Amino acid sequence: MRFSLLPAVVLSLSVVAHAGDWPQFLGPDRTGISDETGLIDSFPAAGPVIVWRAPLGVGMSSLAIHEGTAFTMYQDADNQFVAALDVKSGKTKWTTAVAPSYRNSMGNGPRATPTVHKGLVYSYSGEGILAALDEASGDIVWSANTPKKHKGRAAEYGIASSPLISGDSVVVQVGAPNAAVVAFDLKTGETNWTAGQGNSGYSSPALLTLAGKQQIVAFVGAAVLGIDPASGEQLWRYAYVTDYDCNTATPILIDNASVLISAGENHGSTILEISRDANSFRATSSWSSLGKGSVLRAEWQTPALADGYVFGLDNVGSAGPITNLVCVRVADGEQLWAKTRFGKSNLTLADGKLFISTMKGELVIVSASTSGFTESARAPVLGMTRQAPVISNGRLYLRDDREVVCIDVRAAE
After folding, report:
1. Among candidate residues 332, 308, 333, 336, the one with its CA nearest the CA of residue 324
2. Which residue from 82, 110, 132, 286 puts its CA 20 to 30 A from 160's CA?
3. Of 16-25, 171-180, 373-382, where does the model show the most confidence?
4. pTM of this prediction?
5. pLDDT per residue over 220-256, tens digit each?
6. Whether 61 contacts 366, CB under 8 Å
7. Is residue 293 within 8 Å of residue 284, measured between CB atoms?
8. What domains sit in the chain, N to C, each tagged with a CATH number?
9. Which strands form 252-255's sheet, in the order they lie side by side?
10. Do the Cβ atoms of 221 and 203 come closer than 8 Å?
């Protein structure tokens, strides 16, 4: 393990208040953090309060919540669909087929989560068909087969890049030889720009401000890229080669010049410091913790940052079965605590707590404390899942390959 200290004062992540809606992957600010308060610490004696369950099909897509509707993707034997569900009842408002069914050895169905923006829902299928649908009706406004359009091929384990809105573009990883990342016009689906080269990773891009400039940070198959959101110009590149191109976690903003990246397959974590000289940008490692002794190897889960501390799932081995829940201090990379063999899971940070969905289908509540691991609740709620909990207006949403479940997580008044 190798570290060099960041400045003594580390700015915590500033979360913009977006009470209620969860309109894209990882929430309003793509951080996996909710600003909701007054949430439960434990479950009633009878177990979690289930508001509704809604049948669905196969898929790894999470949910986006916007103005009373939950959007997700699934597939049946023939097609991949975008579905709109009423958040009060779970009843289906509409479903629209957007691509043929997708099959893969790592699991079938769509992977990416829809994004809702100004009356349109943007979806991305397992093989890379990007579509814009009318939010109210589900009618397809436009559709683009991105690998075909840019002469590439879908990632080996399926496209998992959830659409990012930036200006007049929707941005995704495509993984074409000369178009690793592509921006498509929000209204027409025409290509606005392309950036980078080579295979895509499985990460969703983030819109961050670093070194005084807003930029798209994309964790592609073998590198991290900083991209000008208006022109597609590559501002900087930092090589990050991982077995099987399994760069999956979304980059996390640490402060106004630093971003955390983390990958599984026994790879590890690195904080990049982005510096600027006039219009020239450079990415260098502020600290790194790599290999089998790493403090954090995020496999397919994006860690969450709170007040200079990162909470995340540390996967041991090459896609191995052992996963630890850890707390890491950003300033020096010290692992303050680890709950070893916690199990493959995913998490969302809200109200000082980690709401964790285990791959077994349990919902677990753990204190987001730097002093040690404290679990306050655990209960089975559905089947095998990889999605992190979605929290919106006091309700928590999860799904598996059979259904969506909505749970009331408001504390009693």
Report:
1. 336
2. 286
3. 373-382
4. 0.94
5. 999 999 999 999 999 999 999 988 888 999 999 999 9
6. no
7. no
8. 18-408 (2.130.10.10)
9. 2-3, 280-290, 268-277, 258-263, 252-255
10. no
Nearest to 45 by CA among 411, 351, 377, 363: 377
Contact 29, 18 (CB under 8 A): yes
Please state, in angstroms and rounded to a whole number, the distance separating the CA atoms of residues 86 and 339: 37
| Dihedral sign computed on CA atoms, order 4, 263, 358, 397 | positive
Helix then strand then coil, in percent of the chain rounded to 5, is 0, 50, 50
Q: Considering only CA atoms, which of 106, 121, 53, 112 is closest in space to residue 80?
A: 112
Q: Distance between CA 250 and CA 245 in Å, rounded?
A: 14
Comparing CA positions, the residue from 195, 257, 187 lying closest to residue 220 is 195
Q: What is the rounded distance in angstroms from the CA atom of residue 301 to the CA atom of residue 383?
A: 18
Rounded to an integer, what distance in angstroms lies between the CA atom of residue 37 and that of residue 202? Answer: 31
**36 phi and psi angles, rounded to 5 deg:** -70, 145
Instruction: Give the tens place of pLDDT for each residue, 90-115.
Output: 999 999 999 999 999 888 999 999 99
